[in-house]
Amino acid sequence: MLSINPFSILSNSIPIQAMQGFVLLMILLVAGGTIYDMIEKQNATYFFRNWKKAKLSKTRDISFSQILVIIFKTITVDVFSAAEFCSFNRRLAHLLTFYGFIGYVISTIVMVFVYLPEQTITPVIWPLIWYLSALLICIGCYWFWFFIRVDVAAEGNSRFRLVQADIFVLSLAISSTFAILWAYFQTSNPILSNVFLMFYLLSNLILFGSIPWSKFAHMFYKPGAALQKRVADADGSRRNLPEPADKPAIYGSARRLPRNY
Fold first, then answer.
1. How far is CA 30 from CA 1, 16, 59, 216, in A?
2. CA neighbours closer than 13 Å in the CB half-sphere of residue 6
3. CA 15 to mean position of chain CA atoms
4. What is the per-residue pLDDT across 174-224, written as a single tens digit (0 to 9) for each?
5. CA 220 to CA 201: how far, in whole Å?
């Protein structure tokens, strides 16, 4: 099962052009939803306004080589290792979801656009990456959903409480779950597989179609915010904040560990 391209089997009943068109539609929904979110919430305007304000209050210039180092640190530390999270569990859950999503998207695009129709032999590595990535997404999302969410872990709310901010993580987890179930039952139970396929397509439409109302677009904003923060620290503007105090931070207490999210 893990060595078979699930989209290759699906091409027996659904035209290849339809599958490729659906993937392209999802890409367009991501682009359109992100642009709409930027216009509606004026995120780009906020970032550029802060950038101009920081230029006026900077105390030193930074060279082009320093900018390259800052960009490299932002990518490797803030993006690829999620250094913003203080909690190890929160960080690990984020990284599982992050790398799982990247592998899942890349392997899906490769298998749909490169290794179809069924007569084309798909290298074993691509279906393996697809299944493993979907599994990583499920582990990361469900771990976060049931045990790490701040309103559950710190505020004591029900694990089954739903708010608008949960659309992204929940639809991503459900989409990955239905993906695995659809592919697993393709050969053993085609009827059940078709049922899971319908839910898989529906959950993808919800995931990528709800971007203006979910936290999906934050994955594009966070690297920009992290880069802006590092540049502000380097040029001395510090986002109009004072220098760090010599006295160490004394948050939390001896009886209870601080919960930083």
1. 30, 22, 39, 9
2. 28
3. 29
4. 999 999 999 999 988 989 999 999 999 999 999 999 988 888 887 877 888
5. 24
